[in-house]
Design goal:
238 residues; alpha/beta; Rossmann fold; six-stranded mixed β-sheet; four-stranded antiparallel β-sheet; 10 helices; 27% strand; globular
């Protein structure tokens, strides 16, 4: 049995007086690509923010590599190998492409290896190489998404959390982003993927959880879920 890298138990998160996550349990094993799907407002992004320490949790626990990380800041978690590609990309708009990638490696001091990893990101995303000296704020939405993924990879994560990477992108760019998610996973990075595009998310995942109104309502093998009539009716528009 593969090691459990990430375990969420009884997670409750409220903000603005609203109980957004109402007692959620799930786990991600080493070497897995796990999708968390659900409609807008289900609590998926809140869950991701709680895991990465950018939202306080009201109850429950989050364990990473067997230890509780409740209350730790995002910077502490990056040092431990837990990185996030946030919803809305969150690039540093007044820095250029290379500077954004360097920011992703802020926990590292191995200059030669950092330069080599920037080259690797440019191999994955040739378009970023063409835009290497361009301010991130002037990049297209798709390019900013590439940059956000590249920046997260610069910390050499063990677990990569991705929040809605395809949101707002043109179909051709959505194809590219999912191709990259598959490639990153193939290189041995464990991934937790939150995605509204349920059919795409389920088609590349090993396992999946369905979240509705702050609760996990279904879980199982992603391919089986893809053919489940209830899932298809609710999330695949059938």
């Amino acid at each position: 049995m593969a090691t459990i890298l990430l375990k969420v138990t009884g997670l409750k998160v409220a903000y603005g007086g609203i109980q957004a996550v109402k007692g959620v349990d799930f786990e991600v094993h080493e070497g897995e690509l796990v999708s968390l799907i659900g409609s807008n407002g289900a609590g998926k992004t809140t869950t991701m923010k709680a895991i990465t320490g950018s939202l306080p949790i009201n109850d429950g626990d989050i364990e990473y590599m067997g230890k509780s990380i409740r209350g730790q800041g995002p910077w502490d978690l990056v040092r431990q190998g837990l990185a996030m590609v946030p919803e809305g990309r969150g690039v540093f708009t007044r820095m250029n492409t290379v500077e954004n990638l360097q920011m992703g490696a802020y926990i590292r001091s191995d200059k030669a290896a950092i330069a080599s990893d920037i080259d690797k990101v440019f191999t994955i995303f040739p378009r970023l190489k063409e835009r290497s000296s361009q301010l991130a704020g002037t990049l297209s939405g798709g390019e900013q998404q590439m940059l956000a993924i590249g920046r997260a990879l610069m910390s050499r994560p063990k677990v990569l959390l991705m929040d809605e990477p395809s949101m707002g992108l043109a179909p051709i760019m959505v194809d590219k982003i999912f191709e990259v998610v598959r490639d990153v996973y193939a290189q041995g990075v464990t991934i937790l993927l939150v995605e509204q595009n349920a059919s795409r998310a389920l088609s590349i995942a090993n396992r999946a959880y369905v979240m509705e109104s702050g609760l996990i309502t279904m879980s199982g093998d992603a391919k089986q879920m893809l053919s489940d009539p209830k899932v298809r009716a609710a999330y695949l528009g059938e």
